[in-house]
Amino acid sequence: MAPKRKQPAASSSKPAAAAPKKRASKLAKDNDLSAAEESEIQEAFALFSVPSSTSKDPIIPTSDVRRALIALNAPPTSAAELAEITATVDPDDSGSVTYEHFVAVAALKLHAKHNDPEAMKEEVFKAYGLFTQGQEREIGLNDLRRVARELREEVPENVLKDMLREATGGGVGTVGVEEFAGVMRRAGVFG
């Protein structure tokens, strides 16, 4: 039998391997969530979680479910929907919600948001408005420079121009709402 080969020692001249992609948990898979969506839900839950007196797992007060959904950018659309959600996540009216109950409802809200063309259109306009500062005009190179400065990112001029070329299909012109929406869809931000 041939001897096993030894792995070569890590060389300091080689770049470090990229971190492995986070995998979705069983709970996320059961609720048809990606790892990124699961992470968003975990963050929203953690914002309002408190220690449970009956188990080792944290809970959120039922009164904070609405706020947690707002943090996910998937708020209840009416008082009736909130009442239905509350009854679903806290069926025994204990005043607290476990992560497992919350993730199921949050997943439904996220899926509904991604499948609602009107909600998607509204999100595109909100994001577009951040670049144009709410003005009805197209996004230009100066807008990209300003946003990069506001985010304290040092983005080279050629990269900003490449962003415009990507959005416009080749030219370094300005970007309209439809082109912006296309970029967002290609990037996977909007469905």
TrEMBL record:
Keywords: Calcium, Repeat. Residues 1-35 are annotated as: Disordered. Residues 8-19 have a biased composition (Low complexity). InterPro entries: CALM/Myosin/TropC-like (IPR050230), EF-hand-dom_pair (IPR011992). One of its GO terms (cellular component) is myosin II complex. This is Calmodulin. It comes from Extremus antarcticus. The lineage of its organism: Eukaryota, Fungi, Dikarya, Ascomycota, Pezizomycotina.
